[in-house]
Amino acid sequence: MGCLRCVFFFAFRNCDSSVLGVYFSTMCASFLIRSHFRSTLSKNAVLRRDITERQSHIIIRLLRTCVNVRKRGYIHSVGQYHNTGFRFNFYNSFSLSTRALTKLKVVLGIETSCDDTGAAIVNEHGHIIAEELHSQTATHNETGGIIPNVAKDLHTQNVETVVQRTLESANMRLQDLDAIAVTVKPGLIMSLRVGLHHAQKLAHMSNLQLIPIHHMEAHALTARMIGRIDFPFLVLLASGGHCLLAIARDIDDFLLLGTSLDTAPGEAYDKTARELNLIKMPQFCGMSGGAAIEHMAKYGDHMAFPRLHVMAQSASCNFSFTGIKMATRRQILAEYSKSGLPPDELLPNVADICAWFQYNVIYHLARRLQRAFIFVENAELIGDIKTLVVSGGVASNSYIRANLQHICSLYNYTLVCPPQKLCTDNGIMIAWNGIEKMLSGRNYLQSADSLDVVARAPFGVDISKSVTNTSIKLSKLKLLGEK
Ligand code: KG4
Ligand code: ZN
User: Fold this and answer.
1) Cα(22) to centroid of ligand 1, in Å?
2) Does residue 194 lie in a domain region?
3) Alpha-carbon distance 324 to 268, whole Å?
4) Would you say residue 450 has pLDDT above 60?
5) Do both 201 and 252 map to the same domain?
6) For the domain that residue 151 is a member of, what is the CATH number?
7) Last residue of a domain, one of 93, 126, 148
8) How many folded domains does the chain comprise?
9) Which of 116, 146, 235, 239 for a ligand 1 pocket mutation test, highest count of atoms within 8 Å of Cβ?
């Protein structure tokens, strides 16, 4: 056992300073532990419970060190290790990949711009080491929308736990990080402040620097964490606070083709869901209005009412969702008065209204996209590889995605949508944006005290007027299932 202890100390002492030391010591450890317990181990073995407390304690500490090292990217595979069962595979445990000799950057991301408290640790290969999210949706559903003070209080109550849990599940300390990325704009000012203040506190405790993050830029670039997407690409962001269409030319270089002139699509979804009393239904408890409408719309007919014509005369890529929201409200009121039902009951044709509402949303998005495809082609702003990235909460909607896929195939675009949990707000996208900024070679790192939050922030360079000036006329567009 003395021998084992030596190996542990050797591994521990060397792992910070020398990767080869870790390699050597872990190989030694592997060999020694294996020979020490040869009688009780086999491939994927479970250690017999008759080893002493002390022996198991030493092994676990050694393995923790190795697991930590792996998480930082030194060691490719540590096999399985569970705190409770001593289950691990020694034969795969300490293989070192060729990449392992370089230390990977690791960033903690903190997101509190709206109603989600998120934190995550991501490395430069886009590997999500740990993540935590506390959603406030259930509370805001009860109060009938986001009340900034309530959102702030909930962030304050949860941010410390969310970050702490992230570090714990990554089995990391602040000192293991390379930087802390934190959303500073745009968003609810009081909510943003909670995240920034917590990041500042952590930075002071650990001497780390902060990377300020633009929430919408983080949404736009999340897809690059999943797979290779080269610049330039087209990006559509549709969320509860924004709707914008842009060309991403670099991690900090965007050309804005169009944006919402009024309501964001997610806001229209949420309002409509409330007016339809959907979020009071037990099966939609804790769900966003958007997700509830998507679900209900599956059972409805999108042609139940005539299609709305939104900004049909405007040759721009700008959006407007207030018209759709108001027209849907009028339709809902008319249906209540026709049915004679009290306004807090569910309409019998609620599914039709949901389907019709969604259809109008996607039709409007599709027409703007159609114009953007033509504009960027004519202006030679996109290369031969044509990619459309779609993100933001509304982009997690399968009906919207399916129709976007359809439009993309008509214009030879590849559609890339991050997985649903990366479309809605989360800490992962903030950490990844921090990683991209660190790897860019430009200096985005700032001292903790130099940062402040901003409620409204522009997204890239606005060229929406150039789009309108080209007066692009659109050919007819048929969505999925239309003849
Ligand atoms: O991106 P996000 O999480 O937060 C903002 O930055 O706004 O987006 C939240 C919005 C909410 O309005 C929510 O109703 C909407 O995204 N949303 C959806 C769906 N899931 C969330 N909208 C349509 N369909 C969905 N499945
Ligand atoms: Zn968002």
Assistant:
1) 45
2) yes
3) 8
4) yes
5) no
6) 3.30.420.40
7) 93
8) 3
9) 239
For residues 268 and 297, state if they share a domain.
yes
pLDDT band at 142, cuts 50/70/90?
Answer: confident
pLDDT-based confidence at 140, cuts 50/70/90?
Answer: confident
Residue 285 CA, ligand 2 centroid: distance in Å: 21
Say what the pLDDT of residue 13 is: 37
Is 120's pLDDT higher than 70?
Answer: yes
Both tokens of 104, joined, read 């990977």
Identity of residue 399: Y
Range of the domain at 399: 233-417+461-469
Bridge-based pairing of strands 387-391 and 414-416 is parallel
Indicate the range of 85-94, 236-245, 294-303, 364-373 predicted with least confidence. Answer: 85-94
Contact 166, 120 (CB under 8 A): yes
In a domain, 476, yes or no: no
CA-closest residue to ligand 1 atom 3: 424
Compute and round to an integer the Cα radius of gyration of the chain.
26
Two tokens at 444? 């985005």
Question: Residue 477 domain-assigned?
Answer: no
The verdict on 118 and 210 lying in the same domain is: yes
Nearest ligand, CA 264: 1
Q: Quote the ligand 1 centre to 461 CA distance (angstroms).
A: 25
35 and 168 in a common domain: no
154 CA distance to ligand 1 middle (Å) = 19
Instruction: Report which ligand 1 atom has the smallest distance to the Cα of 113.
Output: 6
d(CA 347, CA 335): 7
User: Quick one: 368 and 244 in the same domain?
Assistant: yes
